[in-house]
Amino acid sequence: MSSTTGTRAGAIEYPDRPEGPISAAIIAGGVGALALGILTTLAEASTGVADWLQWSDRVGPLSGETIMAVIVWLVAWTVLHFVYGRSPIETRTALIIAFVLIALGVLGTFPTFFQAFAPE
Hints:
Layout: H1 20-45, H2 47-53, H3 61-84, H4 91-109, H5 111-114
């Protein structure tokens, strides 16, 4: 069994593809989580923002917060896909960025945090 590629016989070789689209999706998820945290904190800090985000009386400001966070996520994914589409950005870097953004977003949704911004 001779192999011209230097790999063992029967091994499957895959072409190296750019990881940009995958990285864009991962980072966009972090951006969406951060948007939810920011909107939650803003709704607690300002009655005007809370009123604007209250798209359903039964749900309260959470209805607008989640819809806006999904819109931010979709826009971020689209923009990042075009920015990183053919880029060699590593998935590991994208995961680190996303974890930081998600951690900040989760922090913004903790009552202990966002209630600190509530008007007296």
